[in-house]
Amino acid sequence: MEFKQTVQRLAALAQENRLTVFRLLVQAGPDGLAAGRIAEALGLAPATLSFHLKELTHAGLVQARQEGRFIFYSADFAAMNDLIATLTENCCGGEPCLPVCDNTCKE
Amino acid sequence: MEFKQTVQRLAALAQENRLTVFRLLVQAGPDGLAAGRIAEALGLAPATLSFHLKELTHAGLVQARQEGRFIFYSADFAAMNDLIATLTENCCGGEPCLPVCDNTCKE
DNA sequence: TCCATATTTCCATAATCATGGAAACGACGT
DNA sequence: ACGTCGTTTCCATGATTATGGAAATATGGA
């Protein structure tokens, strides 16, 4: 993953409201959630949420699809995996990162 | 890992100069590097680097130790592993995150 | 003690970011 | 075509962040 994109994705997640949105979308699964539902869950003004969703989509971490009058946003799991893989490399200098794998890869 | 700390650590890494510093420190290994060497490597003004190092140490991602006249900074691998583990959980909803593990945990 | 070196703190400045009201846009039902 | 609902864009505002010059602090050597 490219350096600038890594920074952009980190920045997209490095904000309380956006990280909350992303977690919500991960929980929601591949179908995602309509913007309105997200705004409701976080108690944000429509304009504010729209700003954050743009930030996340711009970074490639979430995807938008129109469905009727609604716009559904969903987490891009592959993009998140790319990010985590990049961080793991940077963290471990290319070596396997045992503690992380012990926690997440068992069984 | 706590939510706010996660945001703080993401924010610490979500800046080109700081991510570069962190990667440099990961490369440098447990001994780390003196602040001056880092400034030299990045071509930053001392005050600017000091600001970024404070940001990283405050987030708990790097550690500082005095050695003679120098201050050596080193990556805190455990903290980075915590961060990655937290992101992996958020990314995969608690499920194992196969693509990441395939890339990083083999052999 | 005095000087040189390494690093930080203080401060001001410019740039970027977060927020939400109001207006615009787009899709649907009538 | 009209009204409504969901969402975005436009815009202004306040807050936070990044940058580096200059002064302060700390360490070690002469």
- What's the mean pLDDT score of chain A? 88
Number of alpha- plus pi-helical segments of chain A: 6
How much of the polypeptide of chain A forms β-strand, as a percent range? 5-15%
Structural classification of chain A: alpha+beta
Number of strands of chain A: 3
Radius of gyration of chain A: 15 Å
Strand order of the largest sheet of chain A: 1-3-2
Termini separation of chain A comes to 28 Å
- What is the largest interface, and how many residues per chain? A-B, 41 and 41 residues
Biggest sheet character of chain A: 3 strands, antiparallel
> Which H/E pattern describes the elements of chain A?
HHEHHEEHH
Poorly predicted parts of chain A = 96-107
Large-scale geometry of chain A: elongated
Q: What's the multimeric state? A: homodimer
Helix content of chain A: 55-70%
What does this structure look like?
2 copies of one chain form a homodimer. Mean pLDDT of chain A is 88; it is low at 96-107. In chain A, a hairpin with a 2-residue loop joins β2 (62-67) and β3. Helices cover 64% and strands 13% of the residues of chain A. The radius of gyration of chain A is 15 Å and the shape is elongated. A 3-stranded antiparallel sheet of chain A has the order 1-3-2. With 107 residues, chain A is of the alpha+beta class. Chain A contains 6 helices and 3 strands, in the order ααβααββαα. Chain A binds chain B through residues 3-4, 6-7, 10-11, 13-16, 19, 22-23, 26-27, 29, 75, 77-78, 80-81, 83-85, 87-93, 96-97, 99-101, 103-107, and chain B through 3-4, 6-7, 10-11, 13-16, 19, 22-23, 26-27, 29, 75, 77-78, 80-81, 83-85, 87-93, 96-97, 99-101, 103-107. The structure holds a DNA duplex (30 and 30 nucleotides).
